[in-house]
Amino acid sequence: MWPHKNSATPYSSLWSTVKYTFPKAWSAGPRFCVAMAASALMAALLAPVAVVILAVLISNIETMIAGPADSAIMLTPWILLAGGAAILGAVCSAVSNFNKLRLGDELSLRVQKEVLEHATSLDLKTLEDRNTQDILERARQEPGKNILNLAEGLLKVLSSSIQAFGLVAILFWIEPFWSSILLLLGIPLIIFRLYLSSVQHELKRNRTTSRRWTKYYARQMAERESVPSTKILRLAKLLLDRYEIKMREIVQSNRRFYCLQTLVTLACAFASIGVLMMAMVVVGRQAATGTITIAQFTAFWMAAWRFRGALSNLATSFSNVWKAQLSIANTREFLNIESTIENRGTLRPFPLRGEIELVNLSFHYTDCKRPTIRNVSLKIRAGETVAIVGPNGAGKTTLAKLLTRLYVATEGKILIDGISIDELELKSLHDRIAFVMQRPTRFEATALENIAFGDWPKLLDSPQEVHRIAKMARVDSMIREMPQGYDTLLGRKFGHYDLSGGQWQKLAIARALACDPAIVLLDEPAANLDVHSEHALYQGIHELIHDRTTILISHRFSTVRMADRIFVLNEGQLIEEGTHEELVASRGTYSAMCKTHEATVRIKSPYFASRPVHNTEASLD
After folding, report:
1. Could you report the per-residue pLDDT of 12-45, keeping only the tens digit for each?
2. Same domain for 572 and 473
3. Predicted structure pTM score
4. Domain presence at residue 615
5. What residue numbers bound the domain in which 438 lies?
6. pLDDT tens string 90-148
7. 427 and 449 assigned to the same domain
8. CA–CA gap between residue 289 and residue 287 (Å, rounded)
9. Number of domain units in the chain
10. H/E element holding 433?
């Protein structure tokens, strides 16, 4: 029923967590922290004071009953004092709650931002790891609230302790023996609460993957990108069933935990109430025999019930502190993850000529037995346009990601202008490389912003420059036909105007070229375009990539034939290189691809079979 043995939560000592937590809370709002602490301590002192005031009032009433009528005036100051204490308690509660809410907002903003900043600093390989995704999922579960809960819990531990010791002093003054037993009952109560907190935390930790699955199934059934396939394939029932299975696992583990929690809570309640009743019997007999006064009996009664509540609050506060400590450990676990890419490069060569050389380059993914790239060596001259072709899974896109240092080579090295990319400052490298991926990101932003993001520090406030880039990339007319032109908010999540796949691809190319790159990587740039759009695109690309080193990853002959040289990859190895004519004449793998392509075209359409090869869009695979 309970957590697996190998699921231990990585956490530091409580003191280490406190040292981590309080500076963050203080930096988020020092005045909020001071106000919370002051109001909590004041509220703690008011509990025993209220009991003393009540005892004095009852004592005065007894005196009034036995004395003259004009002694009633003695009640007024104490009643006013009781009322003042009640008002002060209400003010303390309101002040504490207001400042807690304000501090919670500030902490939530700061810590969530810190988590996201760290996520953006990690390399792609680390972020793609499923274990990292589980850790990130746990770290993002209200990290600011967890810090607030720890700070607030420690304050409540302090205030509940002050309240409990103030009340227990009154109890010991009246009945020491039973008061000692009541005090000792607090120890197992606190231990049980801490145990339940640990169990609950481990249960939540162990089902992180299940929670991620439920979110995935929900997205498949509700998000616009996935709904069409879900409906056409009639997958809704299957996905709902799988969603329910994962949720049932969570509900079942919760049910068992709730049963244990209820049993422990009831056992502690029965024990404390039983001891309290025994104490009241003893103190009641003492009051009946005159050993203690009615005022003392009343004070004991009130103090005992309040002490039981204070003890329960103390145990709950300890439990909340421990839960917060374990939850904060999740956040710290993620923040302690280090990127596998060491960004120690400091060189900022400018201008970059764009000469690229791969020397015995190899790379393999952590969970793959075979390397994706195997001992590849090649050289691309500055300003040269080359194409990389090969069957699916040959390692073409991986090679592009290695060139941009999204991944780090397992062996070998990559040189740009004769300098190892490990020595180049990563920001400077990315500023001079444009990478258009097969599935470009669709930013929920205006058309202007979608282009300006390519060099946002310079372009967001320079609309005229964005217009110039759009004209060069041949997307200006497309944008001006949109409802609000460059101010049209694109996407369906927040906007009301969506683009076709090809239109998004065109915007991505314009965005990539906005930074005036020295090296351009185009991974299937025409994948979502028809023949005419592709032709227009490459007319524009020819102009845009002039004097830039360009690497084209494509399956289309119309793309491949425009390259100065072609590199053929198969199973991660470079097996051929040369111009289109040279490779066709060599009758190797590339030549075989061409023949397969021509045969496919003839089968598909006699009309296209009679047309020049460069007007087709068949696959090289």
Report:
1. 567 788 888 888 888 888 888 888 888 888 877 7
2. no
3. 0.69
4. no
5. 356-442+511-586
6. 888 888 889 888 888 888 888 888 888 888 888 787 887 888 888 888 888 778 888 88
7. no
8. 6
9. 3
10. strand 433-436
